[in-house]
Each structure stands twice: as C-alpha cells, then as structure tokens.
Design a protein that fits this description.
alpha+beta; 11 strands
C-alpha cells in the first residue's frame, strides 16, 4: 500500500502546485512590499499597546493572515521531498528514544490534521469557543512589557519564564513517542520557517494525550538532527508550549486553535525575554483512498 500511496502523493503535490502556481509566483514578486507592510502593522500595534483599537487589530489580522497563507503555499511549493519518509510507522519504530511497539492502523497516523472540536472533546477541556494567538496582533511586546489582547501581563522575561514552565511539565522521563492511537490524538506535521523567507528544513510532528501532554519529534533534514518533543497544553489559556530534547529553555509556543489550522503563528523563545515570531506550516500528508486532503 505504501508504494501506491507515495505515488499518489506525488500526483497530489503536482496538482496543488498547478492550482496555486500563479498566486505563489505573484507572492514571490511582491514579498518585500508585503513584509514591509506586515512590519508596519505590527509597529503600529506595538506603539498603541493597551490603547489599540479593535478595528485596527481586525484589519491587521486579516492582512497578516493573508500573507501567512501565501507564505505557507510558497513553503509547500518548495519543500519537494525533504519530508518524505518522516513520521510514518517505520520511522517511529527506529527512534532511539521510543520504548513501546507502534500500534496504529494507519501508517501515517501522525500526519493527520486536528479539528478544534475534536481536540476539545479529546482533552475534555470544556472550552466554550476557540481562542486565537497571533503573535504580533493578539500578543504584542517591547523591551519592557508583554500585552495579551491589550492587557499587560508582565515583562518579556516574566512572560518567557511562564511559557518555559509550561513547556517543561513535571514528568519522570522525557515524553516517549505517541504510538498508541487511543492514548493520543495527532496535531499533524509542521514545517517551522521564518515569516519572511527561507525554505523548510525543520519539521515537527506534534501529538497530545488526554492529560494535555504534548509529545512528538523534531527533525532537521539538513543537519540530520532528530530529537523528541515534550510539552504541555494550558487548559485555561488554550496555549501550547514545547521544547526539543534537552533544550529546556528554548521553547516554542502556539495557540491550540492555531494548531488546527493550515498555518499557525508561533513564538520562539530563544532565551528568557528573547522572543521571535515564526510560522508553522502544516505539511500535507499522504492520502489514503478514503481520506480527504489535509491541506486545502
């Protein structure tokens, strides 16, 4: 079955490229102007801080998200076969940190995208509505303070430390690979890229269990680095944070709602108080004959 599905994937990728080709080409031609506009939007929101007007946030969000959509298609167009043979059942069987047999019905179970309502039920979270975290619009910061939807919640160092704590749950051992379906639900496979430019070389597979623990794996296809992921979901704020391997103070943060979309805003905490907005781009998984496409 794998050979047949892999052959179909090449066809699906070619069809997607054909559909989005003109728009991606136009994006590449206008990238510099659109990046400049994105920066101007964020600078204006940062300058307004707590006094930012709701309509300004809405307009900025619409423009930034449209940029992300085109940037994501640009990334998918260039990714080629760099993520082939990643995060399937054979790949997980050979991870050095895994100590349980793989027991999944779909060889590409980990690639499946998540729906917000499905995750809400799986976690028994009781969330009444989804909460977005767009870093640069919902969450803005400068050298002194961090604002979440106009409310000051502390200094950048204080904010980072709270995210670092979330990304380091109190576990006896590093989180093992999610390899049993009923214990975990997948959040899909993502490329981590800079917002402005650059090809996808870093990939995450993320899954969450019923206790809100995040696990999965990180792969850098250029360096060959492969490390386990561990993190946690904050049920109160609907944020997720995780780290890779032993790098406990370099953490990644995203909203759970965003992780059910095709591209997600991500805040990378390089060190306490040192933050950069990046972009997570969902990778389209192999389609089994009865499955719809993961990325529209």
């Amino acid at each position: 079955m794998k050979k047949e599905v892999e052959r179909d994937r090449k066809r699906q990728v070619a069809q997607r490229k054909e559909r989005s080709g003109d728009r991606v080409e136009k994006f590449r031609e206008n990238r510099k102007d659109r990046v400049a506009s994105l920066h101007n939007r964020r600078q204006a929101l940062r300058a307004a801080r707590a006094n930012v007007r709701r309509e300004n946030v809405r307009e900025s969000r619409e423009e930034i998200r449209e940029y992300w959509k085109d940037r994501a298609d640009d990334v998918r167009d260039r990714v080629e076969d760099r993520r082939e043979n990643l995060f399937d059942d054979d790949w997980w069987e050979n991870r050095r940190w895994r100590n349980r047999p793989v027991a999944v019905s779909n060889p590409w179970w980990w690639w499946q995208p998540a729906r917000w309502d499905t995750v809400n039920v799986f976690l028994d979270a009781g969330w009444s509505e989804p909460v977005d975290y767009d870093y640069g619009t919902d969450v803005i910061y400068d050298e002194r303070e961090v604002y979440v939807r106009g409310e000051s919640i502390g200094t950048p160092v204080e904010y980072s430390r709270s995210v670092i704590r979330l990304a380091n749950p109190d576990l006896e051992a590093i989180a093992e690979a999610p390899v049993v379906e009923h214990e975990w639900t997948p959040l899909g496979v993502w490329a981590l890229v800079q917002e402005e430019q650059g090809d996808a070389v870093m990939f995450f597979q993320l899954s969450v269990n019923k206790n809100g623990v995040i696990s999965g794996a990180y792969v850098n296809v250029v360096s060959g680095e492969e490390l386990p992921v561990v993190g946690q979901v904050d049920r109160t704020t609907q944020r997720a944070a995780w780290h890779i391997g032993e790098q406990t103070e370099k953490v990644f943060e995203a909203g759970m709602t965003n992780l059910t979309q095709d591209q997600a805003s991500c805040l990378v905490h390089l060190a306490p108080g040192e933050m950069q907005p990046w972009l997570l781009v969902r990778m389209e998984g192999p389609e089994l004959p009865t499955q719809p496409a993961a990325v529209r």
